[in-house]
Amino acid sequence: MGSENEVGIDVTALRKQSGAITYDPGYGNTGSCESAITFIDGEKGILRYRGYPIEELAERCHFTEVCYLLINGELPTQQQYDAFHNELTYHSLIHEDMKKFFEGYAITAHPMAILSSMVSALSSYYPHAESDEDVDLNVIRLLAKATTIAAFSYKKSIGQPFVYPANNLSYTENFIHMMFAVPSEPYEVPEVIADALNLVLVLHADHEQNCSTSTVRMVGSGGANLFASISAGISALWGPLHGGANQEVIEMLQRIRDDGGNYKKYVDLAKDRSSNFRLMGFGHRVYKNFDPRARLLKASADRVLDQLGVDDPLLDIAKNLEAVALEDEYFLERNLYPNVDFYSGILYRAMGIPTDMFTVMFALGRLPGWIAHWREIRDDPKGRIHRPRQIYTGPTERPYVPLAER
Ligand code: CMC
User: Fold this and answer.
1) 321-347 as b/e: b if 16+ CB within 10 A
2) 155/346 Cα distance (integer angstroms)
3) Region 143-148: what's the mean pLDDT?
């Protein structure tokens, strides 16, 4: 029984007692662990990090405060917060040798490919982390350097020189600065963009046992180091059904716009099973009610576009699509509501973030969650390597036939 009264049936002895295993493809009804990090009630649209409602954190917290909360279990005192922030600033540079890695990537390289491989490569610079202190330091290094790696990958893709982190800026401001400043030209981070970035990062910070987080836990359960485990999570996030959906949403909205803006046609297409087309940004394994993050993002997208004076026709298409889908029998029956990816892309576009960086933004936001889960599994005294069973459906035993006789 969990602290929010969720009930789990312990089946660990089932096979020993009955010879059978449980069968649950996609793990829709399988609890893989106990976790004290994030609570979701998908029916009621509730999301809480360490007990704090997402709405309160989104409105009042800086992202680095949420990082501290997720990773350490409690909100920081002012002193702890200042020390954490200073450490993030101190470690934000990447080793100068690592800059050479960027020369090896193709100019067309997807920034998710760069991020996952560069995060994995961090373990070649900081390989030894046995003690808690060393692990804590690697956690800081990862959080601090990930934004630098992400911004450098963008600069590489547009052929501009890298912009180094600036020590006088906050974590979020610094990322915007490294993305959009040009060396030797003055640049001031627009407050509205820094605030919007803070919101999206807070909203993405954790989401319990999703595909990428379960991957991090899976890899970590075998004892792999922090950087290797998180790199695996980044790769898992890339898929279009998971974090890659934010890029797919914008590409879908662009397709609808280029096709004359007939969004109803695409709602019909999504309902047609033979089409293989899904409304990207709709549906969720856990939420069977409105995703609370989508609600906050929609409001923020409206606000930011208004403040920046951006008129994005894709926002109108998105709103129309949502209105039609929310009244449609097919979507109602299946509880398909907009998810976090539906409006985040519109917000990123308004902030000037290019489409192929969208999933990187998700990854930057999800880092503290992945780290918290990796730490939870590392510190779990009952922890076992993750190793599911299967129902074998291949051929039964048969003799080998030599090559010449086949
Ligand atoms: N458009 C049309 N039909 C859909 C959609 C959609 N976006 N999503 C689910 N369905 C249908 C699906 O065809 C199935 O219908 P039926 O019962 O007739 O076979 C039913 O709804 C249940 O779908 P499912 O695939 O069994 O649901 P799932 O829990 O396995 O998948 C999902 C969840 C998020 C992968 C899926 O809803 C989807 O593919 N959505 C589009 C991609 C997307 O937006 N992903 C981002 C998820 S939120 C952020 C994250 O996790 O990273």
Assistant:
1) bbebbeebeebeeeebbbbbbbbbbbb
2) 21
3) 97
- Would you call 341 a catalytic residue per the annotation? yes
Distance CA 197, CA 119 (A): 21
Q: Given the CA of residue 291, which atom of ligand 1 is nearest to it?
A: 48
Give the distance (Å) from ligand 1 centre to CA of residue 281: 9
Ligand 1: lining residues by beta carbon, under 6 Å: 26, 210, 241-243, 245, 270, 278-285, 334, 336, 339-341
pTM for the model stands at: 0.94
Please give the radius of gyration of the chain, using alpha carbons only, rounded to the nearest integer. 23
Pairing status of strand 38-41 against strand 52-53: unpaired
Q: What is the pLDDT of residue 152?
A: 95
Domain that holds residue 331: 245-350
158 lies in some domain: no
Lateral strand order in the sheet of 52-53? 38-41, 46-49, 52-53
Give the CA angle between residues 390, 391, 396 to the nearest 5°: 120
Q: Kindly report which listed range (149-153, 228-232, 379-383) carries the lowest average pLDDT score.
A: 379-383
Pick from 245, 334, 239, 332: which is nearest to 281 by CA? 245
Q: What is the pLDDT of residues 284-332, one digit of tens each?
A: 999 988 889 999 998 998 889 889 888 888 888 988 998 888 899 999 9
CATH number of the domain bearing residue 336: 1.10.230.10
Helices 171-180, 63-72: axis angle to 10 degrees equals 120
Q: How far is CA 117 from the centre of its chain?
A: 16
* 201 part of a folded domain: no
* 373 located within any domain: no
Domain count, the chain: 1
Distances from the Cα of 170 to the Cαs of 88, 109, 173, 293, 334, in angstroms?
Answer: 9, 28, 5, 23, 42
Burial class (CB in 10 A: 0-12, 13-18, 19+), 178: buried
